Amino acid sequence: MAASKTVSDGTDRRHQLMERLADAIAENGIEGVSIRDLAARAGVSIGTVQYYFSTKTDLLIAAWYHVRDQAIARFHQSGIDELPPGELLLGFTELLVTPTPEHRLSRMWLALVARAAHDPRIAELHREQWQDTEDTLARVLTNANPARTDESRDAATELLGLLDGLSIAVVTEPDRVSPERARRLARAWVRRWLGEDAPATR
C-alpha cells in the first residue's frame, strides 16, 4: 500500500511539474525556461525537479510526451470515436485545430516544434508523432469516403499540413486567422473530401 502511494505521489508531482512547465513555455517560450524557474513555479526545490528531469533536454522530452498524452486524453474524452465515419472525420479534424490563441498546450507544442529544427531528439519525437497522426488520419479519411481510398495517404498529409498551419496561425496571428475561421476552413476541406456542397452544420 505504501509503495502504491509513493508511485501515485510521484506521478502527481511529475504531472504538476508538467503543468507548471506548460505555463512557463506559454508565457516565455522554451528559451525562457530553466529548472530554477520551474522549481519556483511549482513550489518545490531545484533538487526535486532534477530528481525527475536531470537535464533541460530530459525536461523538454517529457514536455513532448505530456502534450501528446493530453491530446490523446482530449480525443477520448470528446466521445467522437463513437460517431459515424463522416462525423468522426469532422470531429477529429476540429480537435487538431488550436482552440484559442492562448491555449497553453498548443503554445507548448508550437515551441517544441520550433525546437525540433535544431534539436535531433525533439525532431525524432516530432517525426514519430506526425507519422502516427498521419496514419490515423489516413484511416479516418478512408472510412469516411471508401471510394477515395487510393487518395487517403496524400490527403492525410495535405490535411495535417493544413491543420498545423492553421493552428500556428491561430497562435501567432489570431487577428488574421481566428479559431472560428480556422475551424471553418478545416470543415470546408472535409466537406470537399466527403463530396458535400452543403454548408457545415457544426
List keywords for this structure.
202 residues, mainly alpha, Arc Repressor Mutant, subunit A, Tetracycline Repressor, domain 2, 2 domains, 75% helix, elongated
Report what the structure shows.
This protein is mostly helical and 202 residues long. The protein folds into two domains: 1-54, Orthogonal Bundle (Arc Repressor Mutant, subunit A), CATH 1.10.10; 57-202, Orthogonal Bundle (Tetracycline Repressor, domain 2), CATH 1.10.357.10. The protein is 75% helix and 0% strand. The chain has helices at 2-28, 35-42, 46-52, 56-78, 85-95, 104-116, 120-144, 152-172, 179-194. The longest helix is centred in the N-terminal third of the chain and has 27 residues, at 2-28. The radius of gyration is 19 Å and the shape is elongated. 26% of the residues are buried.
**Fraction of helical residues:** over 70%
Number of continuous helical runs: 9
Q: Indicate the CATH class of the largest domain.
A: Mainly Alpha
CATH topology of the largest domain: Tetracycline Repressor, domain 2
Q: What is the overall silhouette?
A: elongated
What percent strand? under 5%
SSE arrangement, N to C: HHHHHHHHH
CATH superfamily of the largest domain: Tetracycline Repressor, domain 2
Number of beta strands: 0
Number of domains: 2
* CATH arch. level architecture of the largest domain: Orthogonal Bundle
Structural class: mainly alpha
- Which stretches of 5+ consecutive residues score pLDDT under 50? 198-202
- Average pLDDT taken over every residue: 89
Reported for the largest beta sheet, the result is:
none
Radius of gyration computed on alpha carbons:
19 Å
How far apart, in Å, are the first and last alpha carbons?
A: 48 Å
